[in-house]
Amino acid sequence: MKISVVGGGYVGLITGACLAEKGHHVTIIDIDKEKINAINSARPPIYEKGLEELLARHSGKNLLASTGYESVRDSEISIICVGTPMGEDGSADLKYIVSAAESIGRELKNSGVYHVVTVKSTVPPGTTSGIVVPAVMSASGNNPNIGFAMNPEFLREGIAVDDFMNPDRVVIGSDDKKSGDLVESLYSDFNIRILRTGLVSAEMIKYASNSFLATKISFSNEVGNICKSFGIDVYEVMEGVGLDHRISPYFLNAGCGFGGSCFPKDVSALIHLAKSKGVDPVLLRSVLKVNEVQPLLIIEILKKRLGDLNGKRIAVLGLAFKGDTDDIRDSRAVPAIERLIMEGVDVHAFDPMANENMKAVFPEITYHDSAAGALENADGCLVMTEWPEFSRLDKEFDKMKKRVIIEGRRILSIPDAEGICW
Ligand SMILES: NC(=O)C1=CN([C@@H]2O[C@H](COP(=O)(O)OP(=O)(O)OC[C@H]3O[C@@H](n4cnc5c(N)ncnc54)[C@H](O)[C@@H]3O)[C@@H](O)[C@H]2O)C=CC1
Ligand SMILES: O=C(O)[C@H]1O[C@H](OP(=O)(O)OP(=O)(O)OC[C@H]2O[C@@H](n3ccc(=O)[nH]c3=O)[C@H](O)[C@@H]2O)[C@H](O)[C@@H](O)[C@@H]1O
């Protein structure tokens, strides 16, 4: 099938590359020329396991990239993957969705070929029918050969290619059968459950899924804070809790909280949506509140151990919002470092991949190319990201003045680290 993927960011790039791997002819459209050039030269603009190989196999063959929308005219499906960032009031900012929909619509003017515009970006319920449909229809001169679908994406960064290729489920929302059937044919060889719903339910499933996962994490953190006050190991507790198949063992890791480009933004958007209808989302508000407090708790523990932090040298290991990525969006390391700077700390940071990205946020701190470098002469150490390689650290901590190590993630395998909430 000929497919145009609109937006070549995380989701667009993975979607385009994976659909090319499935044998489709894909064009990725993005307004960012640098990204387009990178994709066309088979250079991944983001770090993601397996992506480089996919680009090497398909770039310039059945995977093309362009800043223009011309490919839409020849495609049977366009898939909108542009960003839906958090607006100032916590709502989803839909300006990129509107402009992508208008551009697609313009290309489909007078086209006689049936085309389905599919929204993959995370959008509030009602966006596809209330914003995308009118924008496309108006720009296309009300072309009757256009259908619409909503196909939320559930991939995780770091294992995005595998998540796309082997998802737990595929959700396809459409208000007419023909559009939904065409999108479903993209997944015909996936061998998983495909759930067909209406447009608004598909949109809401994405928000409810991310909010539920975020709730599991904040719940574990709250239990962890209680456990700490009793001297109980929350990891042992949650292992026992997660053995119940109704709960599952996943997303029960307590620590310094959730970050990333989606959980904080999507929980905020759902809160905003609820309030707009007069519903007070008590639980979701608390989910965010717990998450705001966790990275600051780690500093409180450090203070208990070291006293006044002014002038102290503190190593921060891990800057990415989670392991196996260079993405620092909403990383829990950011509020922690902000607080350390406020306290007059000399911050020495190390991340296996995210140093460069963090330099743009905190140019004033010192970056190291190894954990050992960051730990040299440090008064204390905070571990903020669950990088697997941190589990092998031990002797490196001997470089510190004294081994005062506070873990925000359960990743170290040394006996003398103190957990943030365990
Ligand atoms: N990052 C992730 O792991 C996941 C993200 N999502 C959702 O997918 C959507 C996209 O997220 P990301 O890929 O992370 O965003 P991103 O910010 O990495 O990429 C968005 C891309 O859209 C491009 N763009 C903006 N306006 C455009 C236009 N008019 N025409 C063409 N391209 C345009 C930007 O230049 C950028 O490259 C969001 O709604 C997000 O919530 C869903 C699942 C996973
Ligand atoms: O909508 C999205 O963008 C995506 O958001 C998350 O994926 P992602 O943000 O890539 O990362 P996760 O692995 O979910 O981790 C998110 C954050 O939660 C934290 N986390 C995760 C699990 C856990 O048990 N405890 C915990 O604190 C991680 O450290 C990280 O900061 C979801 O897992 C995806 O299903 C979804 O598609």
The CATH H-level superfamily of the largest domain is: NAD(P)-binding Rossmann-like Domain
The order of strands across the largest sheet is: 3-2-1-4-5-6
Terminal CA distance reads 52 Å
Specify the structural class: alpha/beta
Bound molecules: 1,4-dihydronicotinamide adenine dinucleotide, uridine-5'-diphosphate-glucuronic acid
Catalytic activity: UDP-alpha-D-glucose + 2 NAD(+) + H2O = UDP-alpha-D-glucuronate + 2 NADH + 3 H(+)
Organism: Methanolacinia petrolearia (strain DSM 11571 / OCM 486 / SEBR 4847)
Pfam families: UDPG_MGDP_dh, UDPG_MGDP_dh_C, UDPG_MGDP_dh_N
GO molecular function, one term: NAD binding
Explain what this protein looks like in three dimensions.
Helix 5 (95-107) links the parallel strand 4 (77-80) and strand 5. The mean pLDDT is 97. The strands form 3 sheets. A 6-stranded parallel beta sheet has the order 3-2-1-4-5-6, with helices on both faces. It is of the alpha/beta class and 422 residues long. The protein is built from 15 helices and 14 strands. It is globular. The chain starts with a strand and ends with a strand. It has helices at residues 10-21, 33-40, 51-58, 71-74, 95-107, 127-139, 160-165, 177-185, 199-230, 234-242, 263-276, 282-306, 333-342, 355-359, 371-375, and strands at residues 2-6, 25-29, 63-66, 77-80, 115-119, 146-150, 169-173, 193-197, 313-317, 346-350, 366-367, 380-383, 405-407, 418-419. The protein has 2 domains: 2-199, Rossmann fold (3-Layer(aba) Sandwich), CATH 3.40.50; 293-419, NAD(P)-binding Rossmann-like Domain (Rossmann fold). Uridine-5'-diphosphate-glucuronic acid binds next to helix 9. The active site is at residue 262.
